[in-house]
Amino acid sequence: MPGRLPFLFLSIRAEDAAADDEYRSVLRFARLTPDRVRRIRLTHQRLGDIDLADWSGVILGGGPYNVSDPQESKTDTQRWTEEDLLALIGRVVEADHPFLGCCYGIGTLGTVVGATVDRTYGEPVGGLSVRLTDDGRADPLMVDLPEEFDAYGGHKEAITELPPHAVPLATSPACPVQAFRVGENVYATQFHPELDLDGLCTRIDVYAEYGYFPPEAAEQLKAAARLRDAQHAPSILRRFAERYG
Which domain of life, per UniProt (predicted)? Predict the structure, then answer.
């Protein structure tokens, strides 16, 4: 349909192989063409002035940054990226503008809304079982999902406690907040709705030296991931694009 506003996709992946695979996955699972999505790689450029009225919605990808890391351990790039993102997400929440943060969105959106974000509930790289809450089963982005489904993830930080005004949408045995919503249109997931098996294997290769797992365990992690059926989680991206595009 001519005249529809594009989506803004924000990437924090410096590594081309992982960044490009993530971008292609977002396009594929959201069923969007490249002309409907503008990508900004925040590891390569500052965010700049963003007028939310120019965008159907904002999608934030995952990556190796952790909001809860000590400031002195962060690179200059991470510090300015988080400064830009937290300011933007603050405006997103205030305007209740469509937003979907994948993995890193938990830390950034969680920080903005006053959640406790720390390393209590980190999860290893690979497959996990996610269960919807009652609110999750009723949520427009989750209606295509079974009550319990497999997804792929892997993270060092997570939310330990949500503020009262945030709505928990999904949980897992090892991580109490797998997805939540603020207002009507602002979402974050801890698992990766943009990730399929091939994408997970790409990230295992790219991030083998980033401390998520012992490098020698890479092939074992890939083999374990092949036992999971993560077909349902990507419908969240499709629903997001359909609802707001």
Answer: Bacteria
